[in-house]
């Protein structure tokens, strides 16, 4: 299935290369997924192509992957995670918060505010203080700005674009690894069992 997904998304490519090297690449677990455009697709197909079959997701779980989330679900996920992390904020040394901030520079550079439009940043600064090298605070910005979207200046709204699709695209274009970084944190920690978060990992059908 991983090979099929890759074939469709790359318009005919194969993750293990061309013949005659393909068979040897499969045996050596030597794959190249550079042609995938999104971090979500990269994560999903990497899992599907795991050399160890026990590490591959079951078919019933694949549709739960963030790659298949719509805009509303992704924004709600950011909001729910941010709400849960907010309760941990007084304990800044909490393992979950420390893990969230790992590789923060790769996700949002040293200062994520520099990647946002000034008019939008100025609006946020008037509402509350944020730490501009913190992933948790980046999630807070996404959450709070969504809640207070109508309070943004007309210039900020024009730059961010309308809710929900334009709004989410604005942030994902600048921080393409944020979804999977946050998802992997929740999936590997006790947060996965929280009532508001377990829906992202188990089917309700």
UniProtKB/TrEMBL annotation:
GO molecular function annotation: ATP binding; protein serine/threonine kinase activity; RNA endonuclease activity; unfolded protein binding
This protein's UniProt keywords: ATP-binding, Nucleotide-binding, Signal
Transmembrane segments: none
Family annotation (Pfam families): Ribonuc_2-5A
One Gene Ontology term, aspect cellular component: IRE1-TRAF2-ASK1 complex
GO biological process: intrinsic apoptotic signaling pathway in response to endoplasmic reticulum stress; IRE1-mediated unfolded protein response; mRNA processing
PROSITE patterns associated with the record: KEN (PS51392), PROTEIN_KINASE_DOM (PS50011)
Domain of life: Eukaryota
InterPro entries (UniProt xref): IRE1/2-like, KEN_dom, KEN_sf, Kinase-like_dom_sf, Prot_kinase_dom
Alphabetical list of SMART domains matching this protein: PUG (SM00580)
Keyword S-adenosyl-L-methionine: no
Residue ranges occupied by any Protein kinase domain in the UniProt entry: 1-68
KEN domain sequence ranges: 71-203
PANTHER family listed in its UniProt record: IRE1-RELATED, NON-SPECIFIC SERINE_THREONINE PROTEIN KINASE
Protein name: KEN domain-containing protein
């Amino acid at each position: 299935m991983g090979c099929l997904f890759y074939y469709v998304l790359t318009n005919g490519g194969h993750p293990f290369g061309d013949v005659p090297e393909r068979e040897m690449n499969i045996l050596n677990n030597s794959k190249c997924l550079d042609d995938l455009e999104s971090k979500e697709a990269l994560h999903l197909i990497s899992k599907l192509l795991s050399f160890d079959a026990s590490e591959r997701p079951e078919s019933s779980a694949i549709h739960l992957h963030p790659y298949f989330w719509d805009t509303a679900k992704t924004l709600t996920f950011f909001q729910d995670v941010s709400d849960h992390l907010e309760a941990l904020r007084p304990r800044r040394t909490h393992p979950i918060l420390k893990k969230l901030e790992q590789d923060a520079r790769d996700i949002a550079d040293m200062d994520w505010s520099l990647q946002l439009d000034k008019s939008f940043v100025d609006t946020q600064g008037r509402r509350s203080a944020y730490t501009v090298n913190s992933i948790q605070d980046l999630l807070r910005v996404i959450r709070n700005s969504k809640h207070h979207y109508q309070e943004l200046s007309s210039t900020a709204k024009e730059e961010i674009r309308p809710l929900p699709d334009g709004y989410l695209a604005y942030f994902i274009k600048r921080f393409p690894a944020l979804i999977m970084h946050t998802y992997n944190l929740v999936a590997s920690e006790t947060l996965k069992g929280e009532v508001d978060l377990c829906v992202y990992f188990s089917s309700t059908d």
